[in-house]
Design brief:
Strand content: 25-35%
Order of helices and strands: EEEEEEEEEEHEHEH
Low-confidence stretches: 7-52
Helix content: 10-25%
Largest sheet: 4 strands, antiparallel
Radius of gyration: 17 Å
Distance between the termini: 27 Å
Structural class: alpha+beta
Protein backbone atom coordinates (compact mmCIF):
# COMPACT_ATOMS: atom_id res chain seq x y z
CA UNK A 1 0.00 0.00 0.00
CA UNK A 2 3.00 2.25 0.47
CA UNK A 3 5.15 1.38 -2.54
CA UNK A 4 4.05 3.70 -5.34
CA UNK A 5 6.06 6.79 -6.23
CA UNK A 6 4.47 9.59 -8.21
CA UNK A 7 6.33 12.47 -9.86
CA UNK A 8 4.87 15.95 -10.01
CA UNK A 9 6.67 18.46 -12.23
CA UNK A 10 6.38 22.22 -11.86
CA UNK A 11 7.76 24.35 -14.67
CA UNK A 12 9.95 27.23 -13.57
CA UNK A 13 11.67 28.13 -16.80
CA UNK A 14 12.64 26.91 -20.22
CA UNK A 15 15.28 24.38 -19.15
CA UNK A 16 15.16 21.39 -16.86
CA UNK A 17 17.57 19.87 -14.39
CA UNK A 18 18.55 16.33 -15.34
CA UNK A 19 18.05 13.59 -12.76
CA UNK A 20 21.08 12.91 -10.59
CA UNK A 21 23.21 10.32 -12.34
CA UNK A 22 25.62 7.92 -10.69
CA UNK A 23 28.61 9.32 -12.56
CA UNK A 24 31.23 9.28 -9.86
CA UNK A 25 32.75 12.50 -8.60
CA UNK A 26 31.24 14.79 -11.24
CA UNK A 27 27.50 15.34 -11.10
CA UNK A 28 26.24 17.14 -14.20
CA UNK A 29 25.33 20.77 -13.64
CA UNK A 30 26.57 20.88 -10.08
CA UNK A 31 29.71 22.42 -8.61
CA UNK A 32 31.17 21.31 -5.34
CA UNK A 33 30.99 23.82 -2.55
CA UNK A 34 32.86 24.00 0.71
CA UNK A 35 33.50 20.59 2.19
CA UNK A 36 32.98 18.85 -1.15
CA UNK A 37 29.21 19.21 -1.05
CA UNK A 38 27.25 19.70 -4.25
CA UNK A 39 25.20 22.84 -3.65
CA UNK A 40 25.01 24.79 -6.88
CA UNK A 41 22.42 27.44 -7.63
CA UNK A 42 23.94 27.48 -11.10
CA UNK A 43 22.22 24.11 -11.57
CA UNK A 44 18.93 25.85 -11.96
CA UNK A 45 17.92 28.93 -10.06
CA UNK A 46 19.62 31.49 -12.29
CA UNK A 47 18.46 29.99 -15.57
CA UNK A 48 15.08 28.48 -14.67
CA UNK A 49 14.38 24.83 -14.08
CA UNK A 50 11.76 22.18 -13.44
CA UNK A 51 11.08 21.40 -9.82
CA UNK A 52 10.34 17.69 -9.57
CA UNK A 53 8.55 16.59 -6.43
CA UNK A 54 8.67 12.87 -5.79
CA UNK A 55 5.48 11.85 -3.98
CA UNK A 56 5.39 8.59 -1.99
CA UNK A 57 2.75 7.51 0.47
CA UNK A 58 4.21 7.77 3.94
CA UNK A 59 4.57 5.03 6.51
CA UNK A 60 3.63 5.28 10.20
CA UNK A 61 0.38 7.21 10.12
CA UNK A 62 -3.31 6.58 10.66
CA UNK A 63 -6.43 8.17 9.28
CA UNK A 64 -8.74 10.28 11.43
CA UNK A 65 -12.18 11.78 10.87
CA UNK A 66 -12.82 14.60 8.38
CA UNK A 67 -9.83 13.67 6.15
CA UNK A 68 -7.37 14.34 8.98
CA UNK A 69 -4.36 12.07 9.50
CA UNK A 70 -1.99 11.55 12.40
CA UNK A 71 1.69 10.97 11.70
CA UNK A 72 3.57 8.69 14.08
CA UNK A 73 7.03 8.96 12.53
CA UNK A 74 8.37 11.09 15.38
CA UNK A 75 7.32 12.10 18.88
CA UNK A 76 5.43 15.19 17.67
CA UNK A 77 2.63 12.86 16.44
CA UNK A 78 1.27 15.67 14.26
CA UNK A 79 -2.46 15.69 13.53
CA UNK A 80 -2.56 17.11 10.02
CA UNK A 81 -5.49 18.72 8.26
CA UNK A 82 -6.14 17.93 4.60
CA UNK A 83 -3.76 19.94 2.41
CA UNK A 84 -1.38 20.74 5.29
CA UNK A 85 2.01 19.42 6.36
CA UNK A 86 3.37 18.40 9.73
CA UNK A 87 6.01 20.28 11.72
CA UNK A 88 8.74 18.91 9.44
CA UNK A 89 7.18 20.58 6.39
CA UNK A 90 7.76 17.59 4.12
CA UNK A 91 4.92 15.18 4.97
CA UNK A 92 1.59 16.32 3.57
CA UNK A 93 -2.01 15.21 3.96
CA UNK A 94 -3.46 14.82 0.47
CA UNK A 95 -7.14 13.89 0.52
CA UNK A 96 -6.86 11.91 3.72
CA UNK A 97 -3.61 10.13 2.95
CA UNK A 98 -0.15 11.13 4.19
CA UNK A 99 2.62 11.52 1.63
CA UNK A 100 6.33 12.22 1.77
CA UNK A 101 7.18 15.13 -0.55
CA UNK A 102 10.93 14.44 -0.59
CA UNK A 103 11.32 10.81 -1.62
CA UNK A 104 14.26 10.73 -4.05
CA UNK A 105 15.17 14.40 -3.59
CA UNK A 106 18.48 15.49 -2.07
CA UNK A 107 19.85 18.94 -1.26
CA UNK A 108 23.46 18.05 -0.43
CA UNK A 109 25.89 15.20 -0.91
CA UNK A 110 29.57 14.81 -0.03
CA UNK A 111 32.32 12.29 0.50
CA UNK A 112 33.39 13.06 4.09
CA UNK A 113 36.23 11.89 6.33
CA UNK A 114 34.78 9.46 8.85
CA UNK A 115 36.23 11.67 11.60
CA UNK A 116 33.51 14.28 10.92
CA UNK A 117 30.89 11.87 12.24
CA UNK A 118 30.01 11.33 15.94
CA UNK A 119 31.96 8.08 16.10
CA UNK A 120 35.01 7.04 18.07
CA UNK A 121 37.80 5.08 16.40
CA UNK A 122 35.47 3.69 13.74
CA UNK A 123 37.43 2.81 10.61
CA UNK A 124 39.87 5.73 11.11
CA UNK A 125 41.15 7.30 7.89
CA UNK A 126 38.19 6.08 5.84
CA UNK A 127 35.48 8.09 4.06
CA UNK A 128 31.69 8.02 4.32
CA UNK A 129 29.10 9.09 1.77
CA UNK A 130 26.97 11.86 3.30
CA UNK A 131 23.59 12.81 1.91
CA UNK A 132 20.72 14.99 3.08
CA UNK A 133 17.48 16.55 1.95
CA UNK A 134 15.35 19.40 3.36
CA UNK A 135 12.99 19.87 6.28
CA UNK A 136 13.34 19.05 9.95
CA UNK A 137 11.21 18.24 12.98
CA UNK A 138 13.52 20.22 15.27
CA UNK A 139 14.07 23.98 15.56
CA UNK A 140 17.55 24.18 17.07
CA UNK A 141 18.76 27.78 17.47
CA UNK A 142 22.37 26.72 16.78
CA UNK A 143 21.65 24.72 13.59
CA UNK A 144 24.63 25.03 11.24
CA UNK A 145 22.57 23.68 8.33
CA UNK A 146 19.59 26.00 8.80
CA UNK A 147 19.50 26.92 5.10
CA UNK A 148 18.46 23.36 4.24
CA UNK A 149 16.83 22.11 7.44
CA UNK A 150 14.35 25.00 7.31
CA UNK A 151 13.86 24.75 3.53
CA UNK A 152 10.91 23.14 1.80
CA UNK A 153 10.72 20.67 -1.12
CA UNK A 154 10.85 23.44 -3.78
CA UNK A 155 14.35 24.38 -2.57
CA UNK A 156 16.48 25.46 -5.54
CA UNK A 157 19.36 23.07 -4.79
CA UNK A 158 17.26 19.91 -4.97
CA UNK A 159 18.28 17.08 -7.28
CA UNK A 160 16.65 13.72 -7.94
CA UNK A 161 18.42 10.62 -6.67
CA UNK A 162 17.46 6.97 -6.34
CA UNK A 163 18.47 4.41 -3.69
CA UNK A 164 20.57 2.72 -6.39
CA UNK A 165 22.36 6.03 -7.01
CA UNK A 166 23.19 6.34 -3.32
CA UNK A 167 24.92 2.97 -3.28
CA UNK A 168 26.66 3.48 -6.65
CA UNK A 169 28.02 6.92 -5.75
CA UNK A 170 29.23 5.69 -2.36
CA UNK A 171 31.11 2.82 -4.00
CA UNK A 172 32.59 5.01 -6.74
CA UNK A 173 33.85 7.48 -4.11
CA UNK A 174 35.51 4.68 -2.15
CA UNK A 175 33.26 5.21 0.88
CA UNK A 176 32.79 2.49 3.49
CA UNK A 177 29.20 3.46 4.22
CA UNK A 178 26.39 5.99 3.94
CA UNK A 179 25.45 8.73 6.44
CA UNK A 180 22.05 10.40 6.20
CA UNK A 181 22.83 13.81 7.59
CA UNK A 182 22.64 17.64 7.27
CA UNK A 183 18.96 17.67 8.32
CA UNK A 184 17.09 15.24 10.59
CA UNK A 185 17.15 11.96 8.62
CA UNK A 186 14.11 10.37 10.28
CA UNK A 187 11.70 12.58 8.29
CA UNK A 188 13.19 11.05 5.09
CA UNK A 189 12.36 7.60 6.38
CA UNK A 190 10.86 6.04 3.26
CA UNK A 191 13.93 6.92 1.19
CA UNK A 192 16.57 6.19 3.83
CA UNK A 193 14.99 2.80 4.52
CA UNK A 194 15.02 1.81 0.85
CA UNK A 195 18.60 3.07 0.44
CA UNK A 196 19.85 1.37 3.61
CA UNK A 197 18.45 -1.99 2.51
CA UNK A 198 20.43 -1.78 -0.73
CA UNK A 199 23.58 -0.51 0.98
CA UNK A 200 23.53 -3.36 3.46
CA UNK A 201 23.61 -5.89 0.63
CA UNK A 202 26.92 -4.50 -0.68
Amino acid sequence: AHSSVEEERYERGSESVAPLEATGAAIPGRRRGRGGQYRGREAGARRGFYYSKMIKEARFYNKLDNLKVQCHLCSHSCKILEGSTGICGVRQNKEGKLFSLIYGLCSSIASDPIEKKPLYHFYPGSRVFSIGTVGCNFSCLHCQNYSISAARPDFSYMQKITPDDVVSLAEEQGCIGVAFTYNEPSIWYEFTFDSAKLAKKQ
